[in-house]
Write a structure and sequence with these properties.
- There is one protein chain.
- By secondary structure, the protein is an alpha/beta fold.
- The chain is built from 11 helices and 10 strands.
- The chain has helices spanning about 5-15, 30-40, 50-55, 60-70, 85-95, 110-125, 160-170, 195-205, 220-230, 240-255, 265-285; strands spanning about 20-25, 45-50, 75-85, 100-105, 130-135, 140-145, 145-150, 170-175, 210-215, 235-240.
- It has an 8-stranded parallel sheet, sandwiched between helices. It has a two-stranded antiparallel sheet with strand order 6-7.
- It starts with 5 loop residues before the first helix and ends in a 6-residue tail after the last helix.
- The structure holds zinc ion.
- Zinc ion binds near residues 82, 83, 139, 143 and 181.
Length: about 290
Amino acid sequence: MPVVNAKEILMPAAQDGYAVGAFNVTNIIMMEGVVEAAVELDAPLIIQTSVTPSQFLRPDIVAGAYRSLAESAPIPICLHLDHCDDIEYCKTCAEAGYTNIMIDASHHDFDTNIEHTAQVSDFCHDLGNISVEGELGTVAGVEDEVVVAEGQEQLCSADQAVEFVERSRIDLFAPAIGTAHGVYKSSHPFVDFERLDKINQLLNGSTVKVPLVVHGGTGLAPDVVEKLVSLGGAKFNVSTDLKHTWIDAVDEYVRTYKSEYNTGKLDSFAKDAIRNKITEWITLLGSSGKA
Ligand SMILES: [Zn+2]
């Protein structure tokens, strides 16, 4: 299929009450494993990279691999840049072929956050069919080099959400509701369901305008994930779970088959592990068969 942006994928999800996984990859083989799982389940898909891996691989190479995979797949696939606070790098990735850009200016004050986010919205909308995600409040955990301690995050004000979305001209909105990056320290992390529900009612109550994004999917109990989806979470970011899956698979392979020195078999083994993990997530999010 032709490449699509995230909003095109997420409007039907928000309307029909399922979520699309935004799966974080750090190399091209992971990307292939993610795509294979989504194709097998006939699920719409968002592939994402954080800033550091996209710089390491080069944005044009990530976008080139994405475009080849997406155009030959029978499902809609978006490529998303996650948590970028550098306006110029947001533009670089948009020009390279990413189809959704998250400008994360959430560490700035309210007006500066809006100003930075709107700059990226206007650039991406002028450039082409590229949607933009913004964040209000901060998410706990580690994203690239940015560390926010659990319990020290700033949750999104529902009252400010409508003004933020209107003035920043974003297509997708990530309100901080207590979910966190990395591994949760508590087995029952505080997640502010009421806050998400209120924000969703304010923004999308009569008709869906701005699909909502949940960050920090790794480690949430399945019933928590399902509840977040039912309250309007339409894009679900998953990163740490995939990194653990990849490294555990490589570790297992090397411990068992190191003496073969067969890198192709190692890659294939790790890709199978990623494919199985993505299958679990797509099934939980309810996007199987929705492509
Ligand atoms: Zn995030």
